[in-house]
Design goal:
May play a role in DNA repair. It seems to be involved in an RecBC-independent recombinational process of DNA repair. It may act with RecF and RecO. By secondary structure, the protein is α/β, with parallel strands linked by helices. Helices cover about 40% and strands about 15% of the residues.
Length: about 200
């Protein structure tokens, strides 16, 4: 019979990147905290779940709609950086060198996993480009097989629309995730993007 600690461990194990040992460590940590501290933790989870939503323009996670990036008149609205996840937006923002807008696809093309064009926010990107004066789209998908396939698909699609399409420069390891790259690598990759 599972104990409450086993049940809590299993819940932590369901989180991405958390193995059995880390899940057990987190479960032990939580049960050793004061009730007030646990209540704060639960309230923070509930607050984030209830108040974070996808921006109706770029599909980044935000507590406001449109998000602060889309509504910032100080940003360059003629450039859109296309990324796979909201975590990628945060990683590029940490570099401090990009001042345009974003579009979050929420994944990458992966036929083996059943993820096709209709499963991503590509249609919304095309609609967005049709309603704005965007001059350049930077494709910043992960440098893995799925990310490269997505980048090539988007490049072909967008070039017919007469928009300049660039790809962030190499410097990120093949098979790596943008969200785990350091700021200097990301800053160089964005600054040295290449025409596709």
């Amino acid at each position: 019979m599972d104990t409450p600690l086993d049940t809590l461990t299993e819940q932590f194990r369901r989180l991405p990147g958390i193995g059995v040992k880390t899940a057990r460590k987190l479960a032990y940590y939580i049960v050793q905290q004061s009730p007030d501290r646990v209540d704060e933790f639960i309230a923070a989870i509930r607050n984030a779940k209830e108040n974070m939503h996808f921006c109706s323009i770029c599909f980044n996670l935000s507590s406001k709609d449109p998000c602060p990036i889309c509504s910032d008149d100080g940003r360059d609205h003629s450039i859109i950086c296309v990324v796979e996840t909201p975590q990628d937006v945060q990683a590029i923002e940490r570099s401090g060198d990009y001042h345009g807008l974003y579009h979050v696809l929420h994944g990458a093309l992966s036929p083996l996993d059943g993820i096709g064009v209709d499963d991503l926010r590509i249609k919304e990107l095309l609609q967005r480009l049709g309603n704005t004066d965007v001059k350049e789209v930077i494709i910043a998908t992960d440098p893995d097989v799925e990310g490269e396939a997505t980048a090539l698909y988007l490049a072909r699609l967008l070039k017919t629309a007469g928009i300049r399409v660039t790809r962030i420069a190499r410097g990120l390891p093949m098979g790596g995730d943008i969200e785990y790259a350091d700021e200097a690598t990301l800053a160089g990759a964005v600054a040295n993007r290449q025409e596709m």
